[in-house]
Design a protein that fits this description.
The protein has 449 residues and is mainly beta. It contains no helices and 39 strands.
Length: 449
């Protein structure tokens, strides 16, 4: 059932409405001028065809931001953040999908608002516009799974030795077991999801005294890529598989099982297709590996943005949401927190966020997590009004994980606060800062492991 969320801002100009008879938003174009947002324009998907929406507002001398493109159907628009001034003109807009976040277009100044509905996607927009965009609202529809498509069998790559094996295709892969030998991968075994039951596949290869290493996929996640290395090892007549690494849609990554060598291939399907099963060749070691994939995208729960707490000074910043947080860096000044920086996990890569604030001679203090088994569950802090500052500043931060509590960074003084959502983990940060940190907030995702 479609939900109409009221337009936020003023009612200048004329009313416009793109309607709610769309399947998704596919492209967003925005022009900003000196007094705020001058126009918006949206492209939609309907019955498999792109429909180009009209422009709302005027181009004038506006500067057009880069289009924000949404790759339907695996990506959908989750929310819109915006700001409007007392005259009822939209000053700035930011768009968030289930995979990425746009820059702020215009100014993050004035009254802030958010268009969002839990577990729903945006399929249309409405509002008021004249010489500028005065307000914007949205239509939301429930997230729905994309119909299953037949499994696609990707060929097994490696050497044509040993005996061929084939587990077939299931609803997904729940667990992976990999056994190593001195020279490479000696054996693999997989647990598959088949409706309400688990199917334990046979062992392929030869077990050794080293046993198995296990990688478990979260219930609301699935494997989208398998990176495999292979090489010619002394004593063997051909190449053999030397390492395997697994990547999931939500950014969870296994360690590389085995020894990573130079020759490499990747098992994956376009658009983040779901891994459904394995096949390959094995003897005393694993010689080749292939997979079954489906281009079926199960909508994932988007990250929630919890409001920032503290004073209203400084400029807004937002790192967005990732798979998790790996490291926290906090720098202090005489009167409060002066700078923060975070290292995030994004699937196969590590993302070092920007420094927010001003570094001092005191440098940074570091809090490192035992990622991925450790994650931040809450942030405690205090904020206070200090001499020489027009608004409160954050004076202390302390991070709690599922395993430990960090030392307090700063001096615990002023109004206490806690940022947390029961059953969720913290996967990103945002706030306001100038020479000191004025406000601090978090992005959270459900804990699934």
């Amino acid at each position: 059932m479609t939900q109409k969320v009221a337009a936020q801002g003023g009612k200048g100009g004329i009313q416009w409405d793109d309607g709610s008879e769309h399947d998704a938003v596919t492209k967003i174009q925005v022009g900003a001028g000196g007094l705020g947002i001058q126009y918006v324009k949206f492209d939609y998907m309907k019955n498999g065809q792109v429909e180009e929406g009209p422009r709302h507002g005027v181009k004038g001398r506006s500067i057009a931001a880069d289009p924000f493109v949404i790759n339907h159907p695996e990506e959908h628009l989750v929310s819109v953040e915006g700001w409007y001034n007392p005259e009822g003109v939209i000053q700035g807009l930011k768009f968030i999908s289930n995979k990425k976040t746009s820059d702020v277009i215009g100014y993050d100044d004035g009254t802030q608002f958010t268009l969002q509905s839990q577990d729903k996607k945006i399929i249309g927009f409405h509002g008021f516009a004249g010489d500028h965009v005065h307000s914007i609202g949205a239509y939301f529809a429930p997230l729905t799974s994309i119909p299953l498509t037949p499994a696609k069998k990707l060929p097994a790559l490696g050497a044509d030795l040993g005996t061929a094996w084939d587990d077939g295709a299931y609803d997904g892969v729940k667990k992976v077991y990999v056994g190593q030998a001195q020279d490479g991968i000696s054996v693999v075994k997989f647990v598959y999801d088949k409706g309400t039951e688990d199917v334990v596949g046979a062992e392929h290869g030869t077990s050794t005294l080293l046993g198995f290493e296990e990688f478990e996929v979260d219930a609301d996640d699935y494997i989208i890529e398998v990176h495999v290395t292979y090489d010619k090892i002394f004593g063997h007549e051909s190449d053999l598989i030397t390492s395997i690494t697994f990547y999931t849609l939500k950014g969870k990554t296994s360690p590389p099982y085995g020894l990573v060598t130079e020759n490499k291939f990747v098992l994956k399907e376009q658009n983040g297709g779901k891994l459904l099963g394995f096949h390959g060749r094995a003897g005393d070691v694993l010689y080749a590996l292939g997979g079954y994939f489906a281009a079926t995208i199960t909508p994932l729960t988007p990250a929630k943005k919890l409001p920032a707490v503290g004073g209203d000074g400084g400029a807004a910043w937002d790192d967005g949401a990732y798979a998790g947080v790996k490291k926290v860096y906090v720098g202090q000044a005489q009167d409060g927190i002066s700078v923060v920086k975070f290292v995030y996990d994004k699937g196969a890569e590590e993302i070092t966020g920007e420094e927010h604030g001003n570094s001092t001679l005191l440098g940074f203090e570091e809090f490192a997590l035992d990622y991925p088994s450790e994650y931040i569950t809450s942030v405690e802090g205090t904020y206070d009004k200090i001499f020489g500052s027009d608004s409160e500043v954050v004076t202390m931060l302390r991070f709690k994980t599922n395993k430990q509590i960090s030392a307090p960074f700063g001096i615990e003084a002023g109004t206490p606060f806690e940022l947390k959502e029961e059953g969720y983990k913290i996967v990103g940060f945002h706030g306001k800062v100038d020479e000191l940190l004025h406000k601090f907030g978090v992005h959270v995702l459900p804990i699934t492991n």
